[in-house]
Amino acid sequence: MNDADKKILEQVANTVRGLSIDGVQAANSGHPGLPLGCAEMGAFLFGSAMHYNPKNSKWLGRDRLVLSAGHGSMWLYSLLHLSGYKVTIDDLKNFRQLHSCTPGHPEYHDTDGVETTTGPLGQGIASSIGMALGLKTLQSKFNTDEHKLFDNKVYCLCGDGCIMEGISSEASSYAGHVNLDNYVLIYDANHITLDGPLKDSCSEDVAARYRAYGWDVYEIDGYDFDAMEKTFAKIREGQKRPTLVKMHTIIGKGSPNKAGSHKVHGSPLGPEELKLTKENLGISLEPFYVPEEVKDFFAMHAKQGAEREANWDAMLEAWKKANPELAKEFTAMEKKEIPTGLEKEIYALEVKDPIAGREASHAVIQLLAKNLPFIYGGSADLSGSDKTLINDATLIEKDAFTGRNFKYGVREFAMAAMTSGLALDQLFFPFCGTFLTFSDYMRNAVRLSAIMRLPLVYQFTHDSIFLGEDGPTHQPVEHFMALRAIPRLHVMRPADTNEVKRAWLAALHYEGPTALILSRQALPNLPGTDVPFSEGVGRGGYIVQKENGPLDTLILATGSEVSLACDVAKALEAKGRPARVVSMPCFKLFDKQDKAYRDATFGNPKRRVSIEAGVELGWHKYTGIDGTVICMEDFGLSAPAEKLAEEFGFTVDKILARLGA
């Protein structure tokens, strides 16, 4: 790299430092250590290495950059501002303030140029690996010898905390297994964590660990532009494996009294130390100062980015003319087009009766995969049990990315985050599957997908004690309500095949994540569930069995307990107590209905009862404080399903006894 290029990149780096510490100080909150320590790498990525167009942050041909160490967000915001994204100086001044586009950690949707929400350490690694996985799949699907539409790189900056979190091991192991040669993980190795020196908590050889995963590993000085240029040129032109760039840095570089210490990790420098730092680095003392040379440098880059996208668009048009059938599929994936008549086709799908919820969903998945090219699925080593396999598609494997099935292995947490990464690639509607009880492993990634409103599906099977002999470790009881507690996550627990079909329709039309909760045991189709989506499941709760006479008892139920509720209602009717059954497949959808509908659905009963093989928590919202909640009050047991139903009171006779009938 020539001296002039080094000089301007160093000026960019110091501008990033100044903007970052000014933003943190203005907020009196934040993390100045990473921006000070990683400024040169940021300058190099945005000023040399990456292909992007700041005027179109969603350009499909762009490289992606994810800041997994999301606490260092001012580093990213400063670079986005300088390079021309919709992040202004005023936005930097409003760092961490109410409704600003510069929140404490990077938030997808909130900030132009932010590729994914990060903060919980390690998840940025996993979700960015999911992005790289999706882009490799798109390469295999659409690239031709003449037109390399998808030649993108995915870069991720992480720190020691990300490296220590277990999700990084899960995801990195998978990336090595399938050989993601478009992925670059930049490790900010500054030997400091929030609590003190890294040696207090970790002494592993990270480079050796990543070589064992099947990665290439480079080590560079985080302040040596020549080393950066040499290393990243090799990666851009000849990358053969996922790559770790271990970058040796000093946390808080430039701060005379705090550099190299955990004291600069998560607290503002303070006015005096900020002044000393700027003087030490030769930065203007003027707050939020950007030199004209830096503005001009990035104006030139923005022009180059626009030209690069224009060239890509021209290549795309030429590719479409040369490959009309592929072009149709590309457009369908890009627009997420749902064919007219698909709803009727789903209704008409023949599925045996009775059948397990997981089996019914498997049948629906096959139909959707044939009609919707953007449907891709995967499983945590359980596709034969959670029924997520797309039968007519192959597996995604090393050097073979033309399939539509991902075998994530026993890596539930990484699977969930990688599924989010696929959704963030813009051309996929992904789903993944495992047993419901293992949703606990995935929970934080599920939560992030809800924060980001990502359209995707988690297929959770083996949904209750009625899976039987595997016992309480595998029998979920608290999980329905634990998932329902996550805002924006639609939790669908269908009662039969009719509701499974309509639950998938709900997921396809929802701008956010959906959890499908499905049974292992066979369930009968109920006459009352065979109604149009807009009149039944689409409402979240609806009447599936009406009373004969003045309403005495209202029974609310979900999933496998709806058929039991119908049997209980019939028994109550025989005893002169007219009963109504309401299926409640999705609480959030029901709560969105107007009061008139909700009141009409529940009626004016003398008694309200709920039946669900999960914990009591949350049901009194619907039954009232005096209502009867038939539920699990402890963990399950290992026994056949029918024995467990008797043991825990999920039989008609036991419930009638509870109701004094």
What labels describe this entry?
Rossmann fold; alpha/beta; 13% strand; single chain; 3 domains
Structure description:
- The chain has 26 helices and 20 strands.
- With 661 residues, the chain is an alpha/beta fold.
- The chain has three domains: 3-306, Rossmann fold; 342-529, Rossmann fold (3-Layer(aba) Sandwich), CATH 3.40.50; 540-658, Rossmann fold (3-Layer(aba) Sandwich).
- Strands 10-9-11-12-14-13 form a six-stranded parallel beta sheet, sandwiched between helices. A five-stranded parallel beta sheet has the order 1-2-3-7-6, sandwiched between helices.
- α1 (3-27) packs across α4 (73-83), α3 runs parallel beside α4 (73-83) and α12 crosses α13.
- The relative contact order is 0.09.
Q: Averaged pLDDT, please?
A: 97
CATH topology of the largest domain: Rossmann fold
Q: Rg, please?
A: 28 Å
Main sheet record:
6 strands, parallel
Count of distinct structural domains:
3
Under the CATH scheme, the architecture of the largest domain is 3-Layer(aba) Sandwich
* Level-1 CATH class name of the largest domain: Alpha Beta
Number of helices: 26
Strand proportion, as a percent range, falls in 5-15%
Helix content: 40-55%
What does the overall shape look like?
Answer: elongated
The CATH superfamily of the largest domain bears the name: Thiamin diphosphate (ThDP)-binding fold, Pyr/PP domains
Helices and strands: which structural class? alpha/beta
Distance between the termini: 86 Å
Low-pLDDT segments, ≥5 res: none
| Count of distinct strands | 20
Strand order of the largest sheet: 10-9-11-12-14-13
